[in-house]
Amino acid sequence: MENTRPKRVDIIFLMEGIDPIKVVENAIKKSPDDIILDMIDSGLKGRGGAGFPTGLKWKFTRNEDSYDKYVICNADEGEPGTFKDREILDRVPEKVFAGLAICGYTIGAREGFIYLRGEYNFLLPALNEKLDVFNAGLKKIGLDFTIQMRSGSGAYICGEESALFESMEGKRGEPRNKPPYPTVAGYLGKPTAINNVETLVYAFMIARIGPEKFKEMGTKDSRGSKVFSISGDTPKAGISELELGMSVQQFVDEFGDGDTKAVQVGGASGGCVPRKMFKETIIGYEGIPTGGSMMLFNSSRSMYNVLHDYLEFFTEESCGQCTPCRVGCQQLLKGIEAVKRGEKNPGYLDDLKKLAKTMKVAAKCGLGQSVANPFISIVSNFKEEIIY
Amino acid sequence: MSKYLVNLTINDIPVSVPEGTTILAAAKKLDFRIPTLCYHEDLCVAGNCRVCVVEQVGGRALIAACATPVSEGMQIHTNSAVVRTARKTIIELLLSEHNSDCTKCYKNGNCELQSLAHEYRVGDHVFIDLVNGKHRSIDDLSPSIIKDDSKCIRCQRCVRTCDELQGVSALAVAYKGDHQKISTFLDHPLVEVVCTNCGQCVNRCPVGALIEKTYVEEVWDVINNPNKHVVVQTAPAVRVAIGEELGYNPGERLTGKMVTALKRLGFDSVLDTDFTADLTILEEGTELLTRLKRAVVDKDPTVALPMTTSCSPGWIKFIEHTFPEYLPNVSTCKSPQQMFGALAKTYYAQKKGLKAQDITVVSIMPCTAKKYEANRPEMRSSGYKDVDYVLTTRELGMMIKQAGINFQNLEDSAYDSIMGESTGAAVIFGATGGVMEAALRTVYELVTGREVPFANLNILPVRGMEGVKEAKVKIEGCLPEWKFLDGIEVSCAVAHSLAHARKLMQAVKDGTAHYHFIEVMACPGGCLGGGGQPIPTNEDIRAKRAAAIYGEDEGLPLRKSHENPEVKMIYEEFLGAPNSHKSHSLLHTHYLVRKQY
Asked: Is the residue at A137 inside a domain?
């Protein structure tokens, strides 16, 4: 895709001629093992950002010997700069429901849940109404599977899968120790396949038309396409579904305002790509992975303020249970403030980078581990903006 | 234990351990100690302090040794460069959030964070001090426990203790991020919530965030006041644990040395709570028999059975909060500590020719809840506060050290008289099942005229560390006055730690369990595992203290409460008979319904 524009795709929101219940009915004519083979073959990876191969996740959950299993749609879309799941659930919820049902059939679950971000509760009435119809449709085609809505209460950490289970179980949303992984012991300690909203829609597409079309798109490591949430200094803010494999440069050429100095890829927990690295950085698992958030910053922005905002966010949204994250976030935040005020010399930033590296390896969950991403990339590339 | 063995290497040394073993335990097997803070043997794994992180070769991140089970072929390094950096950084982070005013801290010298900081020689650490400027409150309103949030390292040991071990959940995690703290219902002080003052959190707090409220200075003051006659009583479980404060291994019986030390500290009379433990058996045994008679002979439907014990003030506050409808089932007997206080300021005063107001009663207890109990407004039947000050085993250790007494070289001495006589039955009050065993020894003999039918008086079914124990004793060949009990199988249950007590009481409430008599001790192992006992605690330490207690029982010439000569004497001279009017006014109490949060 050298020197070409990012290729727009229309899969996720396409509804024309598609009857989700019919798709489920056809999909479950295949054996679960065949569905898993299709998913593996497609190369679909989790669209929440972590990128675990979806087919394997389903396979592991299917292989567990348990009467009760669950499939959960993670719609706790809390990453700053991400708003694609809201759009998907607003516009094509039936495709999400159908993805859940197909996953449920595949892994042997009779219950599915959509864990909806607390701030998206305005979607609930419509979703519940559509769910009633959809659940009835499943009954009609003889699939023993029902979907229910669950609501979060606004904690970012509950998007972390094991904290999400805790929250669903009525407990304080705190990540669990792993292992065991969700495929072995998830919601209520039972094998659970937990998938992002977007992942389920792509799974739906693969079940509908087979893996070939999906596989054709993207690169070896990053198959298919992805919905991006584009915000910041861009004339084209909003949702775009693009084929994977483009460089940041290609992306900026399409979505930038001509003065882009940095792109924050993957939200607050992602990495910041400075202009000098636009060309060499691929958006995808071979380069910089993203759950979909792309924030563009032009030269009018202070990267100190950007980083400060992110750190304030993490300091507040850390669940607080593990030391590296709870205290580390506070230290990083207070640390850059102290450097800015001249209370600590610029060399202190190196100490803070070391701290961030320790957080990356020693924090209990993905939240604490990923604070290092924005911190190190912004401090390394915009050091003068942090200091002066 | 699983039958599969897993092979791995730790610091390049191969080891095979059963499947499911944690890396922490596997390393221990190879004599590698991995430091921990949030980990505690009595509690479920949290994995949140991250001090125990180790490196797995090929792993993306470090892993918590306490929380990660071994897997085949694993290569673990417990002290590699990356581990050392991470561990030291984590200790520094904890210190940046911790009020490190160590020299003024109550836990100075017995603080796990302090030890780690020393071990890693954390110097003038680089991080910004986060303690100042935060609103971290000190809750010192409870007479038992002080909670100082500025020292808290959020390891959540206390939360897990309060929830898992005690089923109380007075302490919980509140808020998130930088505001996260350990708190109570709506941030109320501990005295205003369901806290039972059991002190199990104090026993497990690695730092000085949860400590007992100390009365050592007040006690020194009364000792040094020539106008006060200061009487000290010692609970059964103190004598088998005080050694741990003074350089002994767990499980040493040091009754004689402890009595000598107390005399050297300057107490005017060193007496034994065992005396009132024996008295409790007669009062409570009689109460039980009276209730049984009302149920069996009078067919009185209002009689509250099963009857439960009332010695453990943690249990009392727990049932007041949690099962208030069962308060009529609780024996009206005061705890031995409070019986002692009431008698010290009446009977003892009379015998010694002293005025009640000139007597100060100090208790040495394995318990923090006893501090609360002594402050209950009901506990003033002598006309004065029956027990003036309650010290824990730990505080006694502190006083002995402050007085410069070389404990290990002390000669043994005997308790003073009166109210210093003890039986083996009283000593075993200190272990779970002990009150039950002591009661059965006496009640059975009272009713049948024969010794309880267990070899050497050892009622083994009620001993041991099982959470809920049951025993049935068939009563046969009764004396004429107790004929109505002939053929009845007395059904008993014993629970220790409040989580087990809750389970037991719930079963009673649901009607799935039927008993005549229930013993509950709030703390794991009974008083020997009390919240005022030496730190650390674990099952092994508690088992050693229990063995010492039963050893003490077997070694005593008198092993049945009703044979205590001073107990016989007090009934003849002062009380009349068990459950007499005088007994009731001095030795019995009533309970309150409390709120559920």
From this structure: yes
* Token representation of residue B502: 């809750």
Q: May I ask the CATH class of domain B5-79?
A: alpha beta
Provide the CATH number for the domain around residue A325.
1.20.1440.230
* Chain B residue with minimum CA distance to A314: B177
What ipTM was reported for this prediction?
0.95
> By residue range, what is the domain housing residue A154?
20-214
Contact B82 A354 (CB under 8 A): no
List the single residue in A with minimal CA-CA distance to B172: A172
Determine whether B582 is exposed, middle or buried from the number of CB atoms within 10 Å of its CB (0-12, 13-18, 19+): middle
Q: In what order do the strands lie in the sheet with B489-496?
A: B307-308, B517-521, B489-496, B468-474
Torsional sign, CA B237, B492, B296, B450: negative
Q: Which of A87, A153, A68 is nearest to A115 (CA)?
A: A153
What's the gap in Å between the CA of A368 and the closest CA on chain B?
A: 11
Residue in this structure with the two tokens 């003051």, named with its chain if needed = B221
SS (H, E, C) B327-351: HHHECCECCHHHHHHHHHHHHHHHH
Rounded to whole angstroms, how far apart are CA atoms B221 and B106?
Answer: 19
CB–CB of B48 and A322 under 8 A? yes
d(CA B46, CA B67): 7
Task: Note the Cα B313 to chain centre separation in Å.
Answer: 10
Domain check: are A164 and A246 in the same one?
Answer: no
A320/B175 Cβ within 8 A? yes
Structural domains of chain A, count: 3
Question: Does B284 participate in catalysis according to the annotation?
Answer: yes
Q: Looking at domain B225-275+337-409, which CATH architecture does it have?
A: 3-Layer(aba) Sandwich (3.40)
Whether residue B180 and residue A330 make contact (CB cut-off 8 A), yes or no, is: no
User: Does residue A90 lie in a domain region?
Assistant: yes
Q: Does domain B95-212 have CATH number 3.30.70.20?
A: yes
| Beta-carbon count within 10 A of B576 CB | 13
Residues A107 and A50 in one domain: yes
- Please state which CATH class domain B282-332+428-538+549-587 belongs to: alpha beta
- Residue that has been written with the tokens 């005399």 in this structure: B263
A235: which 2 tokens? Answer: 């004339």
The four Cα atoms B314, B316, B318, B321 give a dihedral, to 10 degrees, of -140
CB contact at 8 A, B181 and B147? no
Residue A371 within any structural domain of the chain: yes
Shared domain check, A200 and A107: yes
Question: 166-195 in A: which are within 8 Å (CB) of B?
Answer: 172, 174, 177, 179
Q: What is the pLDDT along chain B (597 residues), one digit of tens a residue?
A: 456 999 999 999 999 999 999 999 999 999 999 999 999 999 999 999 999 999 999 999 999 999 999 999 999 999 999 999 999 999 999 999 999 999 999 999 999 999 999 999 998 768 999 997 676 789 999 999 999 999 999 999 999 999 999 999 999 999 999 999 999 999 999 999 999 999 999 999 999 999 999 999 999 999 999 999 999 999 999 999 999 999 999 999 999 999 999 999 999 999 999 999 999 999 999 999 999 999 999 999 999 999 999 999 999 999 999 999 999 999 999 999 999 999 999 999 999 999 999 999 999 999 999 999 999 999 999 999 999 999 999 999 999 999 999 999 999 999 999 999 999 999 999 999 999 999 999 999 999 999 999 999 999 999 999 999 999 999 999 999 999 999 999 999 999 999 999 999 999 999 999 999 999 999 999 999 999 999 999 999 999 999 999 999 999 999 999 999 999 999 999 999 999 999 999 999 999 999 988
Instruction: Compare all CA atoms of chain A with the CA of B22 and give the residue at the minimum distance.
Output: A179
Alpha helices in A237-365 (DSSP H): 248-255, 303-317, 323-341, 348-362
Residue at A5 is within a domain: no
The rounded distance, in Å, linking the Cα atoms of B428 and B435 is 7
